[in-house]
Amino acid sequence: MSDNDASTPSAIAADGLDAAGKHASGAPWRNFYGRFKGKTLKPNQVRDLDEMLPELSPGAVGWDENPDREPLDLEALFGGRDVWLEVGFGGGEHLAHQAASNPDVGIIGAEPYVNGVAMLLGKLRKSPAENVRVHAGDARDLMDVLPAQSLSRAFLLYPDPWPKARHHRRRFVTQEHLEPLARALKPGAIFRVATDIPDYVRQTLEEVPKAGFTWLAEGPQDWRQPWGDWISTRYEQKALREGRTPHYLTFQRQG
Question: Catalytic residues, which ones?
Answer without folding.
Answer: 160
